[in-house]
Amino acid sequence: MRDSDTKDLELTRTLAAPGEPFVWLTAMGLALGLIMVVGLLGVIVANGLPVFWPSKIVEVHLKPGVKNPLPNSGDTLTGELVQTREKRIPVLSATGDKIEDQTEIQIFVGNKDVNGSGFAFLNNTDIASLSEPRGIYRLERMEYGIAFAYPKSLQLADGTSVPANSPAFTQTLARLDAESAARRSEIEKIEKHDIGAINSRITQLRAKGKGSPESLKEIAALDADYQLLAAKARELRAIQAAAALIYTTPNGIERRLPVGELVAFNLPNTLDFTQKLGLFFHNIWNFLSLDPREANTEGGIFPAIFGTFVMTLLMSLAVVPFGVVAAIYLREYARQGLAVRAVRIAVNNLAGVPSIVFGVFGLGFFVYFVGASIDSTFFGEYLPTPTFGTGGILWAAATLALMTVPVVIVATEEALAAVPRGMREGSLSCGASKWQTIQRIILPASLPGILTGLILAMARGAGEVAPLMLVGVVKLAPSLPIDGAFPFVHLERKFMHLGFHIYDLGFQSPDSEAAKPMVFATTLLLILLVVVLNLAAILIREKLRKRYATGAF
Amino acid sequence: MPPVLSKPTEQPMETTVNTTTEGRPDFISIRDFSFFYGKKQALFDISLDIPERQVTAFIGPSGCGKSTLLRNLNRMNDLIDGIRHSGDIVVNGRSIYDPHIEVISLRKRVGMVFQKSNPFPKSIYENVVYPLRVSGQNKKSVLDETVERSLQGAALWDEVKDRLHESGLSLSGGQMQRLCIARAIANRPEILLMDEPCSALDPIATVKVEELIRELKQEFTIVIVTHNMQQATRCSDRTAFFYLGKLVEFDETPKIFSNPAQKQTEDYITGRFG
Ligand SMILES: Nc1ncnc2c1ncn2[C@@H]1O[C@H](COP(=O)(O)OP(=O)(O)O)[C@@H](O)[C@H]1O
Ligand SMILES: [Mg+2]
User: Fold this and answer.
1) ipTM of this complex prediction, to 2 decimal places
2) Which residues line ligand 1 (CB under 6 A)?
């Protein structure tokens, strides 16, 4: 009796089991997704972060008879090891046999002004030995990128010179470097800010003054100011060029580097761990805070970070009111029927339209129609130079807002529907009108849901590139969309964007090998920026959730 | 199909203020009222006079239409799609379906307490003054005075007077329901509708709310839906028994419970069904 009972039980259990494999299947799906995400992030971090870590400089000694890829360099070659990789096209030995070791080494040799290219490739088998010269300097320059150098002397402005082997040499070089950095920012202030302000005022006077005597007088006064400032800048530039560092490149060519051209210097092979760590963070900080140089392959990416940030904020400002108002109408006022359902489907499908199409629409509608109308009404004096009638940060934000509005509408509608019926009835029974109920009870209670929509919209908008290329993003923007010049917020300006920066560096750069590390670092930063923006929104949402929690009892 | 449009009453407007302690016996007058959710008829020809400043209880098995009738008294059912009615409801001599009366002004005269307490996610203070705020009253002195009076009226003042600016959701279940009562009486309505106000409360909280109901009838005309027969005997003056959408019997509460005229009523109160 007992026995057959347990048997029955077992039988039912095995019969119920067919669902079991699906548990594994779903778990595998999740695991696969996680692996891909973690893998992607891992690749980006692993390639992006080492860019900032100071690497050693090696001197490569080639085997006799091997052709040196660098001109006039004998059998040595100096630079930073970048990577070792399998050759793309296998080489054969002189006798026609296949060689075992098919690896090649990529070396960053710098000194582009002397070597022509920044990188060299060597067959692993061609290398006799490696050494690490201690006295070699790594110079970061305003132009031509990095130089690896053996300094000879410092020529000071007063004609004296400090030889490299004197004890005061490093100290003097550091002092000159700091002074030149200070002068550089002063020159920049004069040329970009002061002269920029005068120029824009003159343009304004020329356009609006229409040659009236007062305007001509003011233009003359401004012109005098301009001459003064320009003279000051010239003077500073002359000082920048007066003192110079004399050095020889590893292949023995003597060069003169004005201190004004020197950004930073160090001795990579003498650094200890703490110094390297310090330099690592210093490099990261520079990357975050400086303007780009050398076709964006050197320097920092601050304008791109700032542009992305401001554009995303503007987009949020535009998308939230628009989406929320539309959702309120759809959910609260419109009569639920076929028409509303059709609109809802259309809105959802809008989210599937390729983003480039939104770019084209933004260009046609915002730039050429709205922008041109604004220009002809308010900025007629400047025409034919467009003000709003060309791509700019405002139109980029508006285009992305249009692209992400379905997300906000859907999320808001769901949030509105989730407000308990009791809340609405409670409010209405107090004699509140429908609008009062929406405004005072329903909207606050659905704010967390609305923020969820915003988070999704931001995540999508901040990473979008294609439509921006049509409506205002540029490779190098002369000025930021928000700065110290009146009226402080310049929505008509073109801007730089991290996503576009990645595209530009990776695929449009003249030296894509040099730009590769920057691509990873920029990608890492874009991801971090999206994470930070999202975290901010999530924190606000949690706060609101606590405040407007509607769980009774 | 029965006529669904309500006709404005021919009766003249009653403006006299009742000076007698008795109050008007037909303060709320429900006349041949039928109600439909779409095709489903929920109420059948109900006629009923609810006296002023007394407690009238609606009892009956669930689904018999008590809530439906109650929610018609402040036109809360207007929110539902596809409803219609015939007959009329007259409050203090004036039809609530009078096209010249706005629903909002009707609801301002009629407070409502729901089965599931529904305080807003706002402070206790803001919960109570909500009806005033939506009427455009923002004067601090008036609001302060209202908060104290209403919370005292709802027997909650002593428990919350030191934390008026904490969230209304931080209260216990019974306190929340009394907060909802305070909110319902804040704007001094004439009528207070309560739909099973104690069904989600523990016995102690229930006793408090019942005491409160007996006190509030000095000032308000109260209509209460209840499942609980003891509750009806304890706090109501008159009781209406509904069954399957029809009014079976309506009389003085003691009479209904001691000597019902109808067999169905007797079966129900003695627990033979329901
Ligand atoms: N919103 C609604 N839509 C359709 N039918 C409803 C709705 N509300 C209530 N009903 C129906 O009306 C009848 C009366 O309901 P109700 O007044 O809530 O009963 P009670 O409060 O007495 O339990 C029930 O049969 C119920 O199913
Ligand atoms: Mg009910």
Assistant:
1) 0.86
2) B 37, 40, 42, 60, 62-68, 80
